[in-house]
Amino acid sequence: MKGVSVLILSILLLSCQTLPLINSPVSPAEEKALTCPFPFLKEKYRLVHSIENRMFGETQSVIIGVTLADPSTRIISCAIMTAEGMVLFEAESGPGTLKVNRALPPLDSADFAKNMIEDIKLIFFAPEGTLQVKGILPDGATACRYLEENGDWIDVINDKSEDTVIKRYSSAGILKRQLKFSKTTGNIYQTIELQANEAFNYSLLMTLIEAQPVKSE
After folding, report:
1. Torsion-angle region of residue 60: left (phi > 0), alpha (psi -120 to 50) or beta?
2. Which of 1.10.8, 2.50.20, 2.60.40, 3.30.2000 would CATH assign to domain 22-213?
3. Mean pLDDT across the stretch 28-47?
4. pTM
């Protein structure tokens, strides 16, 4: 009995680390007609979100996030502040660069800054990697899969509820991040839910407060 339990556990662990199969369209014409979901920014925007941090199913804090993101240059400026306006964290990033201008505890670790910038890129910028396959997931959702330079996999999915979902997997196929975009106003999503799989899993619910297009200089 113990051996059977170990076998079942091993199968479950393996299945958690395997990317879901994407079935390619049956004909070249169908493949050409299949359009990859695109929830990403198409122009430079300044965005303000209310961010609800949840852990163990309970809200831990609510903060304000301000993001200036330019998809053409992949340059980001971001800040986190309290509802009263106190700046807790401020950073800017470009291709291959990351500069932290302000970081108060507990937001002052190098990992926090790096992970936050990577999450912002995942939310607002199209994958930089190469498109590997586009088709249909076993549940009928449309999906496009990209392979990033670091070996990560990014799936961009239109699910059955017509929301857009992004899933980021490690090179070993372990799910690291899941995003769900809902309720659009123009080209901007009203709510974005991020689920992070870390040593301690947590989720963020981002609710749009303000969105302004910014003309590039």
Report:
1. alpha
2. 2.50.20
3. 88
4. 0.86
